[in-house]
Amino acid sequence: MQDRFDNPGRTRWRRFAAMLVPATAVAGAIVASVANGAVAASFAVSGQTFKVSASELRGEGFVQFGGIAEEIDGTKHPVAVTGIRNARIYDLCQSAKVPGAPVVLTINAGGGGNPATASDLLIDVDSLEGDTTFTNINIGQDASTLKGGPDGATGDRKGFGQQADTVTIKNLRQVARSTHAGTFLLTGLKLKVNVGADAKECF
Asked: Is there a domain that residue 203 lies in?
């Protein structure tokens, strides 16, 4: 299914469509951010991606811009950096595969109508899908002028950016390289190591 607008401010995302511009423009924006020294995470990433799903994410103070996630050996991965000042996440599932083994680590939280909550949330995103609604969104704003997201999220980064007062994503499906939060409350946390036939990811 191709990307489509269901109504104003609402769209079904596909890979990197979170930037809401054609793929070539996204690549250009990320390259520009790299040239300006944008670094997405304040720590060295493992190089391995992990999956996150949720029935719904509700956020206040949304910003997004291009960046780089860097491994300890210097390997760099272009990412879409997503910042949310306050988030509520319903039916959260996070999964990570163990390289070279039929083993998957899963974390579940935020079920039964009691969402997981996070403040000053920053995510290095590889891909994102979901039915999404923004309020008061600015697209194409210079990243150095983004406001309302986590404190200090953008620093002196320049280039393509976008911001919105609120964001709601239903049927969230996300592949990420890192997550950072000031606080992360995982209500009803369940962590499990799944082996063999049970080694299934969130999606």
From this structure: no
Biggest alpha carbon–alpha carbon distance for the chain: 49
Of 184, 19, 193, nearest to 106 (Cα)?
193
pTM for the whole structure:
0.78
- Which amino acid, 142? D
Q: For tokens 């607008």, name the residue.
A: 5
From CA 169, how far away is CA 133, in angstroms rounded?
7
Q: Who contacts 146 (Cβ-Cβ below 8 Å, separation ≥6)?
A: 63, 65, 153, 154, 161, 162, 163
Q: Is position 192 within any domain?
A: yes
Residue type, 35: A
Tokens of 118: 């996070």
Task: Yes or no: say if 20 and 164 are a contact pair by the CB < 8 Å rule.
Answer: no
Instruction: Give Cα 202 distance to the centre of its chain.
Output: 15
Domain count, the chain: 1
In whole angstroms, give the CA distance from residue 165 to residue 23: 25
Report residue 191 as tokens.
């962590």
The owner of tokens 């920053």 is 122
pLDDT in tens, 166-184: 999 999 999 999 999 999 9
Q: List pLDDT tens digits, range 84-117.
A: 999 999 999 999 999 989 999 999 999 999 999 9
